[in-house]
Amino acid sequence: MKYEPSATADISEQEKAFRAAINNDATLSHFLETGSIQENARFAKEAIYTDPVFLAFISPYFREVYIAAICKAFEQKDTNLMGGIAANPVLLNSGHRMQANDEILLYLEEMRTKLAALHHKLVMYDPFEFTDLLAYTDVSTISNMNYLPGEFLEFRSSYAALVVKVIKALVNRDLPTSLTMVCDLCELTVDMPTQQDVHALCTLIHDADQEQRGMERDKERLYKFLTTPRRRHGYDDLWPF
Known about the structure:
Largest sheet: none
Radius of gyration: 26 Å
Structural class: mainly alpha
Oligomer: single chain
Number of helices: 9
Order of helices and strands: HHHHHHHHH
């Protein structure tokens, strides 16, 4: 249901007051009409915004724009839009808020399903670009998930658990991509057990990466030792072992 700033004349005095409050709030009216929030813009601090009767009036309009804006922020990896939404009150009553959360969750579940499909390809050794996985844990995706309200903690935790499975299946085949993913995943707000799993995996992969880097340095030094002309006398300082 799209909010129209103007209305027919035959509306109640209460609706007139509600519409006047909305139309006088430049940020709120802009959000309802366009689905966007300008940087650092805030809704006016109106007492009416906590009135259950006002929330019942605005909820059908706000819910539609709210859902669309959050999905758009994920699709376009727009952390500014998501941050603006999170910084302002959610003008929904309890019923409409539950409906909005359910619809947003459906959208997020589609993202998780796509990641699960890539995990299946990974374990079945089907060909695909491993770097495609980075889109599911990049900074914007993690930030936008963290901006979601507290009701989404359970989803974030289950999403992180799936990413952990993906990384475990990937690590022996693409260590750099695994390291990037797990480092980004550490920033996701999840429940404590999941957080412990993520950080433990991050430590293991970081240690493996450091070990691999050390082996590569040793290979380089060995190559220099074998290819550099040796001195006739004295010790060769290129290989100090």
